[in-house]
Amino acid sequence: MDDMSQLQRAVENHKIDGLILGRTLIRDDRIKYLKQTDLPFVAIGSTEEPNVAQIDNDHIAACRELTSILIMKGMKKFALIGGDSNHVVNRTRREGFEQGITGAGLMIEDMKVYMDCVDRSNVEMAVEDSMRHMVDCIVCMDDGICNWVLDKLRKEDISVPK
Questions:
Q1: Residue 29: count of CB within 10 angstroms of its CB
Q2: Is 153 helix (H, G, I), strand (E, B) or coil?
Q3: N or C: lower Cβ tally within 10 Å for the chain?
Q4: On the CB side of 120, how many CA atoms lie within 13 Å of its CA?
Q5: In this predicted model, what pLDDT tens digit does every residue of 147-156 receive, in sequence order?
Q6: Neighbour-count burial of 142, counting CB atoms closer than 10 A to its CB (0-12 exposed, 13-18 middle, 19+ buried)
């Protein structure tokens, strides 16, 4: 059973009085469905759907600033490893990273970008490819990906500055 059918069943059977919807999607059928019901809900994350209560961070500005700081510290060749590209948060973080790169006069085409790394094996392959391309820095979009990257670097006996 998928998330949508579970949501529909819970709403139609009056099992919930309200909903906090985590991780918004680019085309989020859950939001469209919930807007058709009387159920109050709030989205954690951004959506372009009008008239939806939403709570989010400015991921674009945060990632742009992080990337700029790393460039000021001397990093020039980056790998960006991100999760599901259908999640709004991953798209906005990538956008901020790209703004940081281009804002410093660097070329996106010179960077290694790996999206849809949703499991350990995808992340480890991205790390291996990054190492072959001699990147200065690996930027991870979330804690789970970061943990897998650090595990892989430890296995390869590559030190990571603290």
A1: 11
A2: helix
A3: C
A4: 6
A5: 999 999 999 9
A6: middle
SS3 21: strand
pTM metric for this prediction: 0.82
What integer pLDDT is reported at residue 100 of this predicted model? 98
Residue type for 4, please? M
Count Cβ atoms within 10 A of the Cβ of residue 140 and give its class: 0-12 exposed, 13-18 middle, 19 or more buried. buried
DSSP state for residue 43 in the 8-state scheme: E
Left if phi > 0, otherwise alpha if psi is -120 to 50, otherwise beta: which for 79? Answer: beta
Residues of the chain under the 70 pLDDT cut: 1-2
Given a contact cutoff of 8 angstroms between Cβ atoms, the answer to whether 15 and 38 are in contact is no
